[in-house]
Amino acid sequence: MEALKQRIRTSGRALNSQVLLVDMFLNNQVDCALMDEIGEEFKRLFEAEGVTKVVTIESSGIAPAAMTSLRMGVPMIILKKATSVILSDGILQTEVFSFTKRTSYQLTLKTEFIQPGERVLLIDDFLANGEAAMGASKLIERAGGKVVGIGAVISKNFQPGMQRLKEAGYNVKSLAEIVNMGEGFVEFADNEGEKA
Ligand code: 5GP
């Protein structure tokens, strides 16, 4: 998606060869107009799949997932990263190792929101090692849903997540596929070496 790649070039910042900061438009400050375009693009990519729910992981997946859900006309469900006193019954959990926090958390689904037979589109901000997406898919499937698509706003294809999900049979799409990056540059799959 050209507008997104352009935004990564102008406002993204590769901290090092592994971590990209996009807090100017996705992780802290949110560019809702860009999120809306992202939602439209995910709709275009997945509309043939008969999606009944969009599922995401708090917190940075919420903005792109909300726009996708709005465009597709189906509800958005948020998977939580911790339990609380108001989230203790009727839940499914799996442990996920966080790429950014370098620690594990309990990814949590409130099961009443995923009925058996539900066709789920999973949306997240980043795809790195695939831990979050694999954990989320496992929860959706344990609840009886089918993951009919996985959409990443940004994937770092030099990390194993993209290949892992494809090998597991998922229909995974990314709107900005990064093949290489380092301090001051980001290179996308279509071989555009650009400053970031
Ligand atoms: P994974 O589970 O695929 O290893 O990592 C995905 C999760 O880690 C995403 O939900 C995202 O929040 C976070 N993440 C992974 N890589 C990056 C990155 O380069 N930048 C930012 N801002 N978040 C990332």
Structure description:
- It is globular, with a radius of gyration of 16 Å.
- Helix 2 (32-46) packs across helix 3.
- By secondary structure, it is α/β, with parallel strands linked by helices.
- The two termini are 16 Å apart.
- It contains five helices and twelve strands.
- Strands 3, 4, 7, 8, 9, 10, 11 and 12 form an eight-stranded mixed sheet that branches. The chain has a two-stranded antiparallel ribbon with strand order 1-2.
- Guanosine-5'-monophosphate (5GP) binds next to strand 7 and helix 4.
Briefly, what is this?
This protein is an alpha/beta fold and 196 residues long.
Strand content: 25-35%
- Name the helix and strand elements from N-terminus to C-terminus, one letter apiece: HEEHEHEEEEHEHEEEE
Protein structure class: alpha/beta
Uncertain runs with pLDDT below 50, 5 residues or more? none
Question: What is the 3D shape?
Answer: globular
Rg: 16 Å
Bound molecules: guanosine-5'-monophosphate
Distance between the termini: 16 Å
Q: What is the helix content?
A: 25-40%
Q: Output the number of helix runs.
A: 5
Give the beta-strand count.
Answer: 12
